[in-house]
Each structure stands twice: as C-alpha cells, then as structure tokens.
Amino acid sequence: MTSAYPDLRAEPASFRDPANRVFHRGDDVLRGLDGRAAADWRALVGSDFFTALLAEGKVCDTVETSPAPPGWAAVLRHERIPFVSHPYEWSHGMLRDAALLHLEILQAALPGGFTTKDGSAYNLQWRGAEPVFIDIGSFTPVRDGEPWAGYRQFCQTLLYPLLLGAHLGLDFQPLLRAQVDGIEADQIRRLFTGRRRFRPGVLTHVHLHDAMQRRNARSSTAEVRNQLRDAGYSRDLAVATVRGLQRLVGRLDRPPPASHWIDYQRTCGYTAEDRAAKERFVAASLTAGTPTRLALDLGANDGRYARLAARHAEHVVAVEQDPGVVDRLYRELRAAGEQRILPLVMDLADPSPGGGWRGVERASFGDRARADVVLALAVVHHLAVGRNVPLPEVVAWLAGFGRPGTRLVVEFVHPEDPMARRLLANKLENTFPHYRRDEFERLLAARGHLEERLHLPSGSRTLYRVVLSG
Amino acid sequence: MDLLAYLDAGSGSLIVQAVVGGIAGVAVAGKLYWRRLVDRFRKQPTDRH
Is residue B15 in some structural domain? Predict the structure, then answer.
C-alpha cells in the first residue's frame, strides 16, 4: 500500500475477474483496473451510449481518479450505493426490473461496439426502488461473430428465477440464496415437464439450453466461438437475441397475491388514535438526534412507517418477510420514482447469512446493516412468541444493528393484546413467562438510555425510544 | 487467447443463443452442425492411418 491508500480494503465480492477489483477506502468505493481494463475504460467513457447511460443514472456514477493503487494501471471512483443488497432479498418485480435494466444496457452497448463480460444479477444494485448497473468493469469491446458470454449467468441468476415465479408461482429467493451461481438449467428443467415445457421461454432457454450444454460439454468455448463465427454469427444476431430476451422477461410478470399481511393495517386492531400517536412518536424519534443517514424498518409490512421515516432520513431499508407484500410496496415506490426506500424480502428470524466464497463473498445481513435509527414496530412479539426467540436475544439482536447513539424505536405488544393472545394461544401455557413489559423495559434500559415511552391509547401496546450506548 | 473468457460462457450456452435469435440464428446453428458433420466424415479416413 502507498501512502495515498494506507487503509485500502479489498471488497470480498470482487475477485472473479482478475482484470479489475473493487476496494473501499473509508466511504469511497474504488476500482483498480489492469492495463487492458484501463484501455477499455477510456474507450467506454468516450462512447455516446455510456455517456447517455450515466446521464440517465442507469449505471453507477463513475470517474477516473489517481493515483492508481499499487499493482493497478488505473483507478475509478464509484458512487456509493446506500445499502448493498443481494438478489435473494429482492421481490419478483425487483428481479424482473433488474433483468430488464441489464438487457437494456447490453442493448445500448452492442451498437456502440461494447458488450458485458458477464450477465449476473449481482451486477445490479438499488438506489431506493431504482435499479442501477454497478459492474463498470464488465464492459468490454465486442468482437463480431461472438454470442454474449454472460448469457448462461443471466439465465441462472435472472431468467430462471423469473420463470419459477411467473410460470409456477414459486418464490426464487431460497434457491438463489443457497446457490451463489444461481439455478442450473439441469435443475429447473425437472420442474418444467409435461405441458409446462410450452410456457414462454421454457422450451428454448431451459430444455434446449440444457440439451446443448450436455451435448457440447466436451467442446471448449474457444472452439465453439470459432465455429459460430465461421457459420456466420453476426452482431445483428446478438442484438436479436437480446431483444428476444427483453420481450420474454417483459412477459414474466407475477402480480403480487392478496395476502393476509396486505390487510394488516386494517385488521391489526389499531384505532385511529393509536395510529396517529404511533406516527407522531416515530416521526419525533427520527428527528430527535443527529440527522439520520440510514434508517432500518424491520418488519416493514406495507411500508407506512418506512415512508414516514424517509421524510426525515436520507435512506430507508424496509425489510419484510412476505415476498408478495414487498413486491406490492416495491411497485408503488417504483411508480412514484422513490429513490430513498429500498424494500427487501427477509425472514427476520432467518436473516441472510454470509454466502459464496468463504461465506464472505455475499455479506450477511447482520454485517451490512448498521443504522442511525432502527424501527422495530409490532415485530418483537412475532419473534419472541411466534418464533420462540428468548426476549434478551431479541433485544441483543436489535441493538446489534446500531452503534453508540443509534436510536432504537421499538413497540412492545403486551401479552393481553389480541394479536399477542392469538400467537400465545398456539403455544403451551406459560411457555413465555418472561414475555412481560417490565422485563422488556429492563432489557432495553441495559442497552442504553430509555429516552421516551408512550402507551398507545387502546392500552395494550407501548412504544419505546432507546439511545444505544457503547 | 480468448479476451472475454474470465467466465466460462459454456459451449452449449453459446450455441443456444444462435437458436433463440430467430430464423437467421437457426440457420447459423444449422450451418454449424452441418459443418461439424461434414468435418467428421472428412476426418475419419485419415484417422485410420
């Protein structure tokens, strides 16, 4: 390390392409480029299509800076993505919009003489509800007569998950979370048998693709590239393939289902007075201390409080377990052009673990989520009673999302509350002797300064604001 | 040397892209397979010697 970069930290997710690598320095996101990647970058930054994509915000804002870190020919500085998320935390609509953006970028690049080296869902991130292409190192000059090298990756991490959702009504998140390289053609074809094989995109992109992979397993890609070029594969054909994929992905919609959580706001038993008091309390908590850069809304449901938080915070991450609820929220936010609220799908009792190489390539949710304000509204009883997580564990877990000074806004639903009673009724009597308000307050007070307490008018819920200490 | 190949693009995944590219693409894939077939017959006599 030179004195210009005494504290350069390599990004664990950036190692697969040796031509470039992402580093962090404080809040800066940097990318080292080798000699050829630096030449590609300079051609790219002079191209009209890339300038247009930058201006439209479709690729992450990037400038060349200096000096290059040791071992690299050049260095870029990228815009900082407010919160890094993984495709298995996205809803169907989010993955579909990410896929469409990837294809749009490729479609713009090809006539400009560029392609992308890969086609991964991990090439995309979010500014709130707006997707953005982040892998600037992926752009490379296209060679005529060659198909897209990223097609297989596109299928595995974007197209196949969308086929599962749109054609079979299956959630893709568990499979993408389990397999860092996505879903193989050989896996998904077993789900598309009988008449299902005739659903849009399945016969070609799944069955034919799988058969071709088997039959050509012993041919090298260099050999096949030459054969395709000799047989007349053209750039026009590459463009037509991308256009076909765009049409297909456009059809792979999965409207969010009506689910009980969607009606939660109406059925959960809050009175109008409760809701007004709760909103005032949350709003006051967001403005009570230093300005909020990142607010976490754990158990965001329809996003009511995430939206409220976004009035006072730079960015809000709204986490909710139900993929349909997240998808509905995402669609509303996207339609409104919201760039500060990121909705994510996650079971809070089973948050994203570390994944990929050595379990650090895809950072766990716990490692990524550090917030200035943490909202945990009507969520503690679901964990403590619904999922049997001991109350001290729940409080320790919430405190883990903060630093000293973080404001924790948490709602405790008393055991007498109808919602808590409904959950308790499913468990043996006296399973949760410690699920009591006094015990909860004692645990909160041990984590910091209990600044505010508000009993909601209907009497069975209490809100707390705790400023975490060190 | 292959410039694009930090990633294994997959031989089958390259060919299938011709097929999904429409009629012109199917023709390219057909030509590729025809040439492979012709090459196999051409090579066989010399292989025996």
Answer: yes
Contacts of B7 in chain A (CB under 8 A): 16-17, 117-118, 149-150, 153
Burial annotation B1-33 (CB, 10 A radius, 16+ → b, else e): eeebebbebbbbbbbbbbbbbeeebeebbebbe
Q: List chain A residues with CB under 8 Å of B32.
A: 227-228, 230-231
d(C-alpha A206, C-alpha A189), whole Å: 6
pLDDT at A434 over 70: yes
Window 13-32 of B: residues touching A by CB (8 A cutoff) are: 13-22, 24-25, 27-29, 31-32
Tens digits of per-residue pLDDT, A242-265? 999 999 999 999 998 776 555 555
Structural domain span for residue B28: 11-48
Q: How far is CA A282 from CA A6, A34, A208, A265, A269, in A?
A: 41, 49, 54, 16, 19
- Nearest chain A Cα distance for residue B31, angstroms: 6
Asked if CATH classification 3.40.50.150 holds for the domain at A264-468, the reply, yes or no, is yes
Domain boundary assignment for chain A: 9-78, 87-251, 264-468
Model-wide pTM > 0.90: yes
How many structural domains are present in chain B? 1
